[in-house]
Design goal:
42% of the residues lie in helices and 15% in strands. It contains 13 helices and twelve strands. The strands form three sheets. A seven-stranded mixed beta sheet has the order 2-8-7-6-5-3-4, with helices on both faces. Helix 2 packs across helix 10, helix 3 runs parallel beside helix 10 and helix 11 runs parallel beside helix 13. The protein starts with 7 loop residues before the first helix and ends with a helix.
């Protein structure tokens, strides 16, 4: 066997990705943070560092040592879940190692054979993975179109579908910054005795009373499941499934991502508990975030960025290579803006995903706008 032959197919695929300007690489932090999901600037905060230090001092271990069904279950895990249930107003919360793990467990475990999952066409890849692994039929509908959800459910029933219907959406979409019509979807779920699954990953911490998200008013309903990640605005890692107790019990008994995975670090559970407390005790962080968002809208909107009403302002470029070249130019100028290409976003919509966080100052937002304007002028000059 010649050297490299075993992975010839993979090598050829990487070459195709390179040719199409879609080959991904890992890179470090490249300047002012306009790309992370650390919206409230908590990841490197002294408050969370202090919470971890205090946990170490009281003997909380770094690792869990096993799955939660074996010896890996720790009082810090249970304390986080109890506090999260009280904070979000749900019957119970169950902590997973990541939002990806939680979404894939939810959608591969809960919908049963004979059920139907209707999901937004732009839902996260983790939800798609869960549906791929699951037993239920699933169908994609037009983005943020409540009528399309209704028609999909009615059509399935007319064709003889008799199982449970599950509606799966994100409350705030990470690449467009726009919001799902949650109230309309909740009404559809009620009419059809369906379950509404809401991924609150990018809304938790930034929206709602005490940062409880865009679905805060739906928490506690017996047909609503909300996923709150700890790795974005909370500055930690992991994800909390906020749901009726029976859902959490079922995931513990049937969810392979829970049963067969080493439990997350008890230290990170302690940090996440502290982050939940900060959402309530430091509302000024959200106020400061929204001041920066409003400034970014004023500065970047006239330059083509979408004013989405959220902390995510995409600037659609179109062509993959052009988006990556623009991102590279901004990074070289000291602004960490990343280009996003298909398949993460639809074909023809490669973009700059500009995220506003408390890790950047107002001066840096203005500076980003000035640099983007200068690059646009240079591009126009070359084109002529």
């Amino acid at each position: 066997m010649t050297e490299g032959h075993a992975f010839a197919a993979q090598q050829a695929d990487l070459a195709r990705l390179t040719q199409a300007s879609r080959r991904r690489t890992l890179s470090g932090r490249l300047g002012a943070d306009f790309s992370s999901n650390d919206y409230l600037g908590l990841a490197a905060s002294p408050e969370l560092a202090g919470a971890v230090l205090a946990a170490l001092q009281r003997g909380v271990p770094v690792g869990s040592g096993g799955s939660r069904l074996l010896r890996g279950n720790h009082p810090e895990h249970e304390a986080l879940e109890a506090e999260a249930a009280a904070f979000f107003g749900c019957e119970r919360a169950l902590w997973f190692s990541s939002g990806f793990a939680a979404n894939s467990a939810l959608l591969s475990t809960l919908p049963q054979r004979g059920d139907l999952v209707v999901h937004d066409e732009l839902i996260h890849a983790s939800a798609i993975e869960g549906m791929r692994l699951g037993r239920a039929e699933h169908v994609s509908v037009r983005h943020n179109d409540a009528d399309a959800f209704e028609l999909a459910v009615r059509g399935w029933r007319m064709r003889g579908g008799t199982g449970r219907v599950w509606l799966a959406v994100e409350s705030l979409y990470s690449m467009d910054g726009d919001r799902a019509p949650l109230d309309e979807l909740a009404a559809i779920a009620a009419r059809h005795e369906a379950v509404l699954l809401i991924d609150e990953a990018h809304a938790t911490g930034a929206f709602g009373p005490d940062g409880r998200g865009l679905a805060a008013h739906l928490d506690g309903q017996d047909n609503v499941i909300a996923l709150r990640t700890c790795g974005k605005a909370l500055g930690c890692e992991g994800a909390l499934v906020c749901a009726p107790a029976v859902v959490c019990d079922f995931l513990i008994n049937r969810g392979r991502g829970m049963i067969f995975s080493t439990a997350p670090s008890p230290l990170m559970a302690a940090a996440s508990r502290a982050a939940l407390g900060l959402l309530k005790s430091q509302p000024q962080r959200r106020d400061m975030l929204w001041q920066r968002v409003r400034l970014a809208e004023q500065v970047l909107g006239p330059l083509g960025a979408t004013v989405s009403g959220s902390q995510i302002l995409p600037l659609i470029i179109g062509e993959d290579s052009a988006a990556m070249a623009r991102a590279a130019a901004l990074q070289a100028a000291g602004f960490d803006v990343r280009g996003i290409r298909p398949p993460t976003v639809p074909h023809g919509t490669a973009r700059l995903r500009i995220a506003i966080t408390l890790n950047v100052s107002e001066a840096e937002i203005v500076g980003l706008g000035e640099t983007m304007a200068a690059l646009a002028v240079q591009g126009n000059a070359r084109a002529t």
